[in-house]
Amino acid sequence: MAKPYRSRINRQPSQFRIKFIPSITVIMGSMITALPLVTDYPILPPMGLLVLLSWRLIRPGYWPVWAGFPLGMIDDMFSGQPFGSAAFLWSLVFLALETLDRRGVGRDYWQDWLIASLSIIFVLICGMLVIDFQSNLLRLEILVPQILLSILLYPFVTRLIGAIDNWRVAV
User: Fold this and answer.
1) Distance (Å, whole) CA 29 – CA 52
2) How far apart are CA 159 and CA 112, in angstroms?
3) Which of 29, 67, 90, 143 would be 51's cystine partner, CB 3.0–4.6 Å?
């Protein structure tokens, strides 16, 4: 029979929190893009990608390399992109991050921000080119506000994910 008041010394964090909170936060970030915001140009940052990059750069060994594919598929359901585009692009980003982790010794905050910025630029430009390569190749400048907003929002998302991660592993 379990004791109603266990000692704080022997307590363990919830296995649900440990295993599922990172994936749930990425899915919730992807769902933000489904908000009914009508604009002529893309302005809403890809929150699912920002949350994914935050988790991946805060906890490098948490997800396997293939985890970008199913999370990207879920993002494709909410973002309106062609099905499989985010899955492919997020998988490429995960492969690049895994390569950097294997070759690099350590990174600081600024290097993580640079890596995330380059990943954001890559995913947004390639995502736009997936939709219609010929007509969108000449109109890449319309992505500049979305790219800038995403890069500037990344530190705030990382801070939020850091707080969620502290709560996740706390007793």
Assistant:
1) 9
2) 13
3) 29
Residue 154 · residue 116 · CB < 8 Å: yes
Q: How far apart are CA 75 and CA 85, in angstroms?
A: 9
Q: First and final CA of the chain: distance in angstroms? A: 21
Output the pTM of the full model: 0.87
- Residue 162 CB burial class (10 angstroms; 0-12, 13-18, ≥19): middle
Chain centroid to CA 21: how far? 13
The winner for highest mean pLDDT among 74-88, 130-144, 146-160 is 146-160
Over range 66-81, report the average pLDDT. Answer: 91
Q: In this predicted structure, what is the pLDDT of residue 133?
A: 62
Nearest CA to 161 out of 28, 65, 12, 58 is that of 58
CB-based contact 127:89 (threshold 8 Å): yes
